[in-house]
Amino acid sequence: MSRFAPRIHVLLASDAPLGLVIRRGPSKCVATLLWDRRRDEFQLGQWLKGRIYERRSDLSPDGKHVIYFAMNGNWKSESKGSWTAISRAPYLKAVAFFLKGDCWHGGGLWTGKKTYWLNDGHGHAIAHDTTSVRRDLTSQPSDNYGGECLGVYYHRLLRDGWKLVDRLHVAKWKDKDIFEKTLGKGWTLRKIAHAEIGAPVGKGCYWDEHELVGPSNGQVIPCPDWEWADLDRQRIVWAANGKLHAALIERDGPAQEVELYDFNDMTFEAIEAPY
Question: Considering only CA atoms, which of 143, 132, 160, 146 is closest in space to residue 10?
Fold first, then answer.
């Protein structure tokens, strides 16, 4: 049986040099880590025996809170098997806990440092709430990208500076949407977001691939191993093969590449949140 590298997805804070790494692997085990993007230091938060839907999750602009949608499949438990939670990054212990009981909708987006849009869809039941952040009842995304991951993920990309440049229907249950973000020095990062049944081995039904588009006409550098990538100030950062990397953007392309962190050998730890 093939052993796959852990899947890595990162949420970046818009107003602070922080990020939240969501590390998944094995498939029903996930960890969160706080990334200090100024020092490139990483702090382990907590593990969850279950699944966090990273495309339905978001980090607050100041990096202090995370809203996430999770599932452990214990449908008769107190959590109803799936839930949306708000926690203090990088931990997962909920300060606000909304029971879901299915995998439609869920999760949400931050509309400010202390306000969030809840992707309510078919509805949540409030287990407990908090006064430290509040639900923004005036916010509702204008476009509808469906009741699963894309309904949150695409709005997060657009909010964070990505442009949706094309939508392609490839075949039945097989679509891909093209996003682009300007990197500087004439370079563009292209994100190809796939949504399909029968995805390649080792990938979920929603997965991304990336390309670098250069200043010369037709110059495209495929990056087949990059499962997540974005712009972090004057550098490009990406995840590939269970590791996080960074490089400066120069006229000739990425330069001075460094490996920031290797998440491959991490194993489950029972960790209590300090609150």
Answer: 160
| HSE value, Cβ hemisphere, 13 Å, CA-based, for 87 | 24
Number of neighbours of residue 126 by Cβ within 10 angstroms: 9
Domains contained in the chain, number: 1
Instruction: Measure CA 203 to chain center.
Output: 15
% of the chain residues with pLDDT over 70: 99
pLDDT tens readout for residues 134-163:
999 999 888 889 889 999 999 999 999 999
Note whether residue 269 is domain-resident.
no
Dihedral sign (CA 274, 21, 72, 143): positive
pTM above 0.90, yes or no: yes
Q: Is residue 271 part of a domain?
A: no
Contact 169, 218 (CB under 8 A): no
Range of the domain at 126: 7-262
List the end-to-end C-alpha distance of the chain, in Å, as a whole number: 40
List of long-range contacts for 261-265, beta carbons under 8 Å, 24+ apart: 261/21, 261/35, 261/40, 261/42, 263/6, 263/8, 263/21, 263/23, 263/33, 264/5, 264/6
Predicted confidence (pLDDT) per residue in 40-53, tens digit: 999 999 999 999 99
Tell me how many degrees the CA angle 174-11-97 measures, rounded to the nearest 5. Answer: 95
User: Rg (Cα) of the chain, in Å, rounded?
Assistant: 18
How far is residue 275's CA from residue 269's CA, in Å, rounded to a whole number?
A: 18
